[in-house]
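Hello Y.,

Per our agreement to keep a running log of every chain we model this quarter, I'm adding this entry. I've kept the format consistent with earlier entries: sequence first, then predicted structure.
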Amino acid sequence: MLRLLASGCARGPGPGVGARPVAGLCHPGLRQSRQASDAPRNQPPSPELVARSVGVCSMMRLPVQTSPEGLDAAFIGVPLDTGTSNRPGARFGPRRIREESVMLRTVNPSTGALPFQSLMVADLGDVNVNLYNLQDSCRRIQEAYEKIVAAGCIPLTLGGDHTITYPILQAMAKKHGPVGLLHVDAHTDTTDKALGEKLYHGAPFRRCVDEGLLDCKRVAQIGIRGYSTTLDPYRYNRSQGFRVVLAEDCWMKSLVPLMAEIRQQMEGKPIYISFDIDALDPAYAPGTGTPEIAGLTPSQALEIIRGCQGLNVVGCDLVEVSPPYDLSGNTALLAANLLFEMLCALPKVTTV
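Predicted structure for the entry above:
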C-alpha cells in the first residue's frame, strides 16, 4: 500500500492560482475517472504567484493523492536503502528530491514539451517500505506498482537504492510482458550475489533476467565504468544480448547519435528507463552511495532522456541519491530536473 507522509490534504494555494483540491487524498474512498481531454489538469503553482517556500513538500508542489485512478502519470517515492553496499542514505532521497523540485517549472522550452497541458499528474506519496526486511520491502513495492500500472498510470519513481527497480519491473512485466530497458549507470547491476545474498542494489537486473522480466535484445546500459575483479566484467551482460556502452566511449562527445541507434533498438515496444545518479561524474553528483570517477555530464544525461521522446516509455526511476553526501543539494536538484525531463519524454505529451 502507498502511505502518504503529508499530514493534511494537499490543496492549491488559494483562489485564482489554478490548483485545486485532490479528491483522492481528502476522500480516500472516492474514485476519480480519467480526465476528459478538455478537463482542467493539475498544474504546479507558478513562483510568480506562490513563493517556492509555500506549500506541502510534494514533487513540483503538485497535489498529493492516495489513488492512481484518473492519473496519466505520477511521481512516487520509494525511500529504501537497505540494499546498499557502500554509503547509505538513499532512503532520504525522495524527500530531498521533492524539496529541490520547487525550482522546476511547467514547460520545457528546449524540447517544446507541455506535460501538464497533456497529462493528469500528481504525487502519490511514498511506498510504505519495511526498512528491516528487504524481501518484504520488495513485496510491498511490487504490490503498490501493480495497482499503479493497472490503473493506466505511468510511474516516475524517486529512489531509494537500485534494489527497488527489481520489484517495479516485476509489476511492469505483469502488465506489459518482458520490457526493454534503458539503464543509465556507472555499474551494470548484474552481479549474481554478494555476501551470499542475491537481493541487493548490485543485482536487480540479474534477478530480472532470471525471471524473464526483460526483453534482453532491447536492453542498453550507458555510462558503465569503474575498476573490477576481472578483465572482462561485462561478459555476462553481452552474453544476454545487452548493449553495454562504456563511459569512456562517451567522453567529449554528444550522445545524440547514440540515442538514434538506441531508438531503433527499442523497436517502439514498451521500454522502462532506470537512471542511477552515479552515472554522472561525482563532480556533478557527489551525493550518492557508490561514486565512480570520469562519468557522464549533465548535458549528456539530458541528451539520453530527450532521446527517448516518442518511445513507448511505460515507467521511469531515478535512484541512489544520498542526501547525507550531498551537502550543497546539487545532486538532488539534478535528480529533480532529470525526473522532469522523463515526464516530458512520456507518450502523449504534446510538443510544439
